[in-house]
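Build the 3D complex.
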Amino acid sequence: MSVIIFFIQQVILFTVPLIVAGIGGMFCERSGIINISIEGNMIVGAFCGCLFLHFAPESLHGQFAFFCAMAIAAMAGLVYASFHALASINLKANQVISGIALNIAAPALSIFLARLIIGKQQIGFTNSFRIEAVPILSKIPFLGDIFFRNVYISLYITIGIIIIGGFIVRKTRFGMRLRACGEYPQAADTVGINVYKIRWIGVLTCGFLAGLAGVMLVVSTATEFNAGVSGYGFLAVSVLILGQWNTRGIVLASIFFGVMKTLSAVYSALPILDTLSIDAFYYRMLPFVVTLVVLAVSSKHAFGPAAAGEPYDKGRR
Amino acid sequence: MDYAFEMLNITKRFPGIIANDNVTLQVKQGEIHAILGENGAGKSTLMCVLLGMYQPDEGKICIGGKEVKIGNPNDANKYRIGMVHQHFKLVHNFTALENIVLGVEPTKHGALNLEKARKKLEELIGRYGLKADLDTINSDMTVGMQQRVEILKMLYRDNDILIFDEPTAVLTPQEVSELMLIIRNLVKEGKSIVFISHKLGEIMEIADRCSVLWKGKCVGTTNIKDTTKEALSEMMVGRKVILIPEKAKQKLGDMILSVRSLCVKDGRRQHMAVNNASFSVCAGEIVCIAGIDGNGQTELAQALTGLMKCESGEIVFQGENWEGTSVRYRSVNGMAHIPEDRHKHGLVLDYSMEENLVLQTYFEPRFQKHGIIRRKAIKDYSNKLLKRFDIRSGQGITTITRSMSGGNQQKVIIAREIDRNPKLLIAVQPTRGLDVGAIEYIHNQLIEMRNQGHAILLISLEMEEIMNISDRILVMYNGEIVCNLDVDKTTVSEIGLYMAGLKRSVD
Amino acid sequence: MEGKNNKGHFEKFLISPITISLLATVISVLIGLVLGGIILAVCNMEQLIPGLGTIMTGGIRLTGGVKAMARFCYYAMPLIMCGLSLGFAFKTGTLNIGASGQYWVGAFAAIIVASAGYNTFGSFTWVIAVLAAAVAGAVWALIPGILNAYRNVNIIISGIMMNYIGTYMVSILIKNVKLVYEADQSRTLSIPEGTILPKLGLDKLLPSSGAGANAGILIAIALGCVMYFIVNKTILGYELKTCGFNREAARYAGISEKRSVVLSMVIAGALAGVGGALVYLSSTGNRLPITDTVSGIGFTGIAVALLGMMNPLGIILAGFFVSYLNVGGANLQMFGFSSEIVEVILAVIIFSCAFAPKIKDGYYTMINKLFQEKEVEHTQEQIKGVKK
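Done.
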């Protein structure tokens, strides 16, 4: 039983950043901008957040420090995403190429600046943010063990993001306009909606959430940041597609990937799998292979926001 | 004299073109004012200026005698100006209700509150007789209902000045009458209407006054009572044009194409777009398929050329059953195709003219040897076609097609398809969006081909074109061929009845 | 109207696509260098000039010229091959983001053949190895190609997936194929001396320690020329380009888009695979490591393809150029900068190239406006004449 609980806890650790990044991607692509630089955004966010933690004075209290780091990471991601927004929206650039450029620049900048500031490329920090047990709530059988033991506050923040994010897109005025911009921006423009502004908000939101996801990921799974998030950003894009661009789908797809990814990392701790002595790399391959298979099966009828990828040009009639 | 609005001396320039050149338009309170003009005359641009989507380079707009600045559609809305566009601005997966309130969504405590809008809309629907189902997704609606949704959009925003841009282009004659009634109702309630069209019949029927635009300039404004269709037509085209090409009676040759009980499914929606169609085309005749856009003509053309699969039925070409054959096979064996959408299907815009001229023939031995392109052969061929068809361009055959005008781009396609000497030429709306000179030229080419014994299947939406160059007319309605008429034994009104589904003659 | 078709030579030059592309590319490079310079300046103002200098002179001055040139031929090989791969894919309408994975499996295939085949093929082993790499890369690209053509799977995502799957799979294979496994170093063993690429006297011309100039660079250049020929002079190239520019028109012309996508990917994959072979057959010291990090060469190849304006001949030059920047950048440590700045510069160049097409359109429009205004005037003359 404890093995299962342990497994679920690990899944949560991996899934939480994925959900946040996926929802960020949803805001961006729903507005009509393709964003494959979520990986780069996560790296930038993680870099800034971890740098902050590296230099944070001892006096800065545990969770509050983490909270500040998350805020800084999110802002950093937002700023980094503004390049993509500028290129895609105002300069009408090829969105895929812009995303690739930002993905290349992020780890390079991270290494470069880390070497400059602290002399080496790995940014270490003390990880004192794991909550052993939330008082009272952790006593609940089973659920208490999963949600209130050995967790980070990122879990609770993420639940909030899921609820708020879904609400915004489906039930608010902004959400409706966002979707209109992604499906048929000419219609939105005709009724006086500023398509550029809405898309900017979409992209910046994505940067904000991706940066947040970056620091969440690194803090909950390591004690140093080494200029990469091991392909998470690309997994987030697949989660977005698999989840059909809506909150519920993204959460489900993320859990699926979280389970797969966890298997690849902790299989040796699970007695059953250890005896099979499958090479570690098979487990690492598994999430990617499964993504491919699932996409192969489901992509035939998956269509995203109709106008995604097309720069909006007011001049065209 | 009370004007609803005035546009005075408006000039609007785009790179390489003056879309509106010192245009003055004054619309009276409570009148139906028509704007007449061909494609490219500047009608849509002028309205976009009025709506705040473009800013004029010169000139001003006055409402109630005072100059106003309309910087964006919200400003236009403030002045109660609204427009039903030619291509509806409706989000395909929103409901009617969502589409109507987009941009002015009612909210309650930060969340959408669409029910508030519903009440107002139901009242409007009742008052003006605009039948529309508020909860239907846009992509499931008929064109007529979509248009009513667009009208409701304006009424919901309390617009008083309503602009209709080519509103009848996609309606059945029945729906057109309904629209005319709706417009008259709107005027009774005090609205002022601007009615943009190139259809003289409708303008004569409904408008009070008419302004004519030609190549960016305003050529004149007249009372409908004081003018005639011919006078307006002449103002519209700017010169006397002989529209009816000379055509001798032709002896028919062999049957080239025979279509029997053809059924084709709609690409998207799983309903039968072509429903049991049967007809034939012989050498030496021009057969035209008439009908309102959306009755299956597109799917029929695509099925005949191999771009789309048939559900059932036969396509027999010169005695050979062509079921299952590829596009290439049909193209090589005597079928040529001038497609509906020249940018989408007919041309590769980033190619040069010569590369586009061999799009259907590049693999023939005269243009390649062992897989290597014969540049010189292609060059000579292209120059020959350029001369013969008088294709105008910036740099001759090496011009990038994207930079050519629409008419000349179409000439490239026509040159290519005609020069292949096909047994059957399928031409789908070959003169869409072209000016009168180009239209005349293309009609002459088609008649020339017919006189030389080729078979032509023309699919067209323009009544004048249909009447002028066809030998036989088939009308498509709801995917079915509902009649088969000789052109000199029928009239426009009779065809109109068939097009509206009000008449059938099965044969 | 005859006069219109006889443009002056200067006007023709202004409009020619090559001029415009070249202009856009040069501007992108300048933007990249300027931005890189700014970052370097902010970090360490004093060392800015020497730092920028070494990047721009490719380190030739520092390392005594010839050695740097040898390195720069060597580094150019994978860049040119990946650039060709991506450039060809772009031109034919697909996006081969999976080039890194194809490169890696190609390298592995080459190493296996070299190690296992030396006894059989002797001094021709390297040829078989390169061919094996091409096949491996082609197969690796076939999968995303088929998935995209027949199952509508987004080709970018599947490319990224294949990168990771390829890297991991090679790691697994290295461990399990005893022939090539050097367990305590987690990498492949040296390939036999006789299987490395022939030097063809280039090592005398440009001596270096370790891997330097060899037949590989000549193969890369030759393949560039072959690709140029295929793209511009053959029907295969015409068909694939048609598909790339306008899929619908390709269907109308009877070209099978499915076949085209798959064929494009296969060729692109083969090119990337060969890139891997050329690098890992250059020296017995080149070992393929067991890793879970995807090689960045595929993405750098994008920079090369963009700089080369998607033209195979341009890509050859661009490959040399990027290699030049990298070699110069490697020396930056001497000035207290880390060499990653070159990657940043490249990223900025890619970024600038992203909106180059729009700049080009604007330029075209501007030029055409000059010519079209003449046409508008002419027509208005005609009208006035008729009205009278």
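Chain C touches chain A through 48 residues (CB under 8 Å).
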